[in-house]
Design a protein that fits this description.
Layout lengths: L1 H28 L3 H34 L3 H48 L4 H6 L2 H10 L3 H30 L1 H7 L7 H34 L1 H7 L2 H54 L4 H42 L23 E10 L2 E11 L4 E5 L6 H8 L7 E6 L2 E2 L5 H5 L2 E5 L9 H5 L8 H10 L26 H15 L3 E5 L7 H15 L3 E5 L11 E6 L2 E6 L1 H7 L2 H10 L5
Parallel strand pairs: 3-8, 3-9, 6-7, 7-8
Antiparallel strand pairs: 1-2, 1-4, 4-5, 9-10
Helix pairs in contact: 1-11, 2-3, 2-6, 2-11, 3-6, 5-8, 6-7, 6-11, 7-10, 8-10, 8-11, 10-11, 15-16, 16-17, 18-19
């Protein structure tokens, strides 16, 4: 039973390997064939130079050194110089061509991976840490470069060298050649075992490398928290733990690689010894010349080096497969949120952009978040969503923008199910300002104009003025072109919020989503931001998530959520009068003071 299971796994592995090989051919090799062909021509020239070198050894010994033929001295010397000159140029040429192809393929694959990952929904990113994904994109993808600089170059250069040098050896003496290679069949089984070992060890090493990248990402992302809590030693210890595991697995993989040429050296040792004994006896007997033996011995010596590298290509292919299998698998992950088939429903104009949730159920994995959620937000009005932490408030925004899809029920925009609309056009309907404003390490201008096209200077200035960004721009060294820093670190919390509001103003979307937009600000910054938000909300369908009830008292409607359901709806005054969940939340925040 175990034998059948092992056989089945190997068959499955072979099928997967063919799938990956076909994917590599289709995406990275096929359109580079003319450059690969050019490089192979130069590889063959390099191999021919090695053959010429070993061939010239015979006249150098027999005609020049032993016979003393001065005429032969010059053409042998010129021939030797030409061989080394030609070999150097050929090597430079094929390496230059292949490094360009390798780097281009790596860049293409990394771009392909990022484009694919950006299409996946939020459920994927909840279970895949950023550091691990960075390693998958940056680290594993370099294997495709190894395909060109290692595998293809090895097959072309070393394959040609083996053929040429083997031909010279056979031409010199076919019997010596057979004696030299007698040990090669004994190496087949050890090499096959090493291939499987290297594949397994290389895969383990890539996983460990991803864990190291993730720990670094966690440390750098949370560096201020680490320093404030004095946990530098703990975080360093965690990194050392994963790094030790990586080193252990990387060393095991490297030893497996090193074992392949070592096994070949064992075969070479036996072959050299037997040829030396057999050929040496013939020279002593006078049936062969010293020049013939030195020519053969040179060809054989040069032959075993490319043979050693050639045999290591199978191990290199297993290492490449270990990384490319992970990369290919990542590209096979299907987005759960996709565009509907055509024809697609039109997105509504601003005046008709009302929002409705109808009996919506949603769960991350098996954990239910929303349980029959139903409410409506009228077009052009402000609807606030309040409730305790964990009530499912932020999930409402994820479902509305289709960062995730409902398990059951419907989310409507302008009376149409959002799953029937074009995904890109749907997301153009929303402008989002959240507590954790996402700014990038680009200029303030780039961060503001994100998602907006053909922005005129007049429109940009109007948005900066309305969002009170122009209040702090004179303090910036380069004005609107000042870099915001990593994650907006060069700006204060209030400044980041105002940049986000300016971005939303330029987007000019019919629906505005505010998620705790002022909760982390001081009183002065909140006043500026709130004024900008009021301008932004005018005439738009606005949905506000808030913990502080003081920020939503003037909302047209307040929806109270608890445990994924709507428990109350109404205006501030109506909900206080009911004396229910909203009134209790209000009392907790403000005491029993009258409104």
């Amino acid at each position: 039973m175990s034998s059948l299971s092992t056989t089945s796994r190997r068959e499955t592995q072979r099928r997967n390997d063919w799938v990956i090989a076909h994917w590599l051919w289709r995406n990275f090799v096929r359109h580079r064939l003319k450059f690969i062909g050019l490089a192979v021509v130069f590889m063959v020239i390099e191999a021919l130079m090695l053959g010429a070198l070993s061939y010239l050894i015979q006249p150098m010994f027999d005609d020049v050194m032993i016979a003393g033929d001065r005429g032969s001295l010059y053409w042998v010397a010129m021939g030797m110089a030409a061989v080394f000159f030609g070999r150097g140029l050929a090597r430079l040429a094929h390496k230059s061509v292949m490094v360009v192809q390798a780097e281009g393929a790596v860049a293409e694959l990394q771009t392909m991976l990022l484009a694919h990952l950006m299409r996946l929904d939020q459920s994927f990113f909840k279970v895949h840490a950023p550091g691990i994904l960075i390693e998958r994109v940056r680290g594993d993808s370099h294997a495709v470069g190894g395909l060109f600089q290692g595998l293809i170059t090895g097959f072309g250069r070393d394959g040609a060298a083996v053929i040429v040098l083997f031909g010279v050896a056979l031409w010199t003496d076919w019997q010596w050649t057979l004696v030299a290679l007698v040990a090669i069949p004994l190496l087949v089984l050890p090499l096959l075992w090493l291939q499987r070992l290297i594949r397994r060890r290389s895969k383990e090493s890539r996983v460990a490398a991803a864990n190291c990248s993730n720990r670094l990402d966690e440390a750098f992302h949370g560096i201020s928290t680490i320093q404030l809590t004095g946990t530098e030693t703990r975080e360093l210890s965690r990194f050392q733990t994963v790094m030790r595991e990586y080193v252990r697995k990387a060393v095991r993989a490297a030893i497996g690689h090193a074992a392949v040429p070592t096994v070949m050296d064992f075969g070479a040792a036996i072959g050299f010894a037997m040829v030396l004994i057999y050929g040496g006896m013939q020279i002593i007997e006078g049936t062969r010349t010293v020049g013939q033996f030195m020519s053969f011995f040179t060809a054989l010596g040069l032959l075993f080096d490319p043979m050693r590298r050639f045999s290591a290509l199978s191990a290199e292919w297993q290492t490449l497969l270990a990384s490319l299998e992970r990369t290919h698998g990542l590209l096979q992950v299907q987005a759960k949120v996709t565009n509907p088939p055509a024809p697609r429903a039109a997105v509504p104009p601003r005046a008709q952009a009302d929002v409705a949730f109808r009996d919506v159920e949603f769960a991350y994995d098996a954990e239910p978040v929303l349980r029959g959620l139903s409410f409506a937000a009228a077009a052009g009005k402000t609807t606030a969503i309040v409730g305790p932490s964990g009530a499912g408030k932020s999930t409402v925004f994820s479902l509305l923008t289709r960062l995730a899809d409902v398990t059951s029920g419907q989310v409507l925009l302008g009376g149409q199910d959002i799953r029937t609309m074009d995904l890109a056009q749907l997301r153009q309907c929303f402008a989002v300002v959240s507590q954790d404003t996402a700014l990038f390490d680009e200029s303030i201008r780039d961060n503001v104009t994100m998602g907006a096209e053909n922005v005129s200077d007049a429109n940009l200035k109007a948005a900066l003025r309305a969002a009170h960004v122009d209040d702090f721009l004179p303090l910036m060294s380069m004005g609107v072109d000042t870099p915001a820093g990593p994650r907006g670190s060069s700006l204060s919390g209030g400044q980041r919020q105002r940049v986000a509001i300016a971005r939303a103003l330029l987007r000019d979307a019919p629906v505005l989503l505010l998620d705790e937009a002022t909760s982390a600000l001081d009183a002065k910054s909140e006043a500026f931001v709130q004024e900008a938000l009021n301008k932004l909300a005018a005439g738009r369908t606005t949905i506000v998530i808030a913990h502080r009830l003081s920020t939503v008292r003037n909302a047209d409607k307040i929806v109270v959520m608890d445990r994924g359901r709507v428990v109350e709806q109404g205006s501030h005054a109506e909900l206080l009068a009911q004396g229910g969940a909203y009134a209790r939340l209000y009392a907790i925040q403000f005491g029993d003071q009258p409104d």
